[in-house]
User: Fold this.
Amino acid sequence: MYDKKEEAHYNLISALHKAIRGSDCDAAVYWLARMLVAGEQPLYIARRLVRVAYEDVGLADPQAASQALMAWQVYERLGSPEGEIALYGLVVYLSSCPKSNSLYRCEKLAVAGARRGGSRMPPMHAVNPVTGLLKDLGYGKGYEYDHDLSSGFSGLDYFPEGMERERYYVPSERGFERDVAKRLAYWGRLREERRKKDAGEDAGRETRGDMK
Assistant:
């Protein structure tokens, strides 16, 4: 029993998605087979599996998205039934991946932050002075080209002026995200050092101004 417009359609794709999320490879393959045998459109399944790759695997295995798109393309080129093996291969791969929903949570938090922030302008150093007038108004002032620095990192803050930094992306300790976490922590330390340095220089300028 399978009606592509009714409850069975959504129940089975939900079961497939959750079996992959739960790293239950054999159950995921079973639900894929159930959908294909019932006549579900394979391209619908392929599209949903791309979403699974980003939502439930994410950067824990960055190859997941590439594998999902590749399986989609293979099916488009071969059609049924030959191309369906690519979908089976993808379901097995996604089921075996380390899992992380950090990107999914990041999206939700960033959208909420954008809605709270309203229409704040970027900091002046982050906007291009495309005309002389804009340059006179301070556009681009204080910008440092990261590639010109020995560390390749300026440490400038790119949040709007007057807005406290917020953290949206919090990597897990699974798979490749462990490396991502180390990279972000490194940049974070350098950015904090830059902030403290700038704060100290600003305090020194204020002190000298008071002396005058």
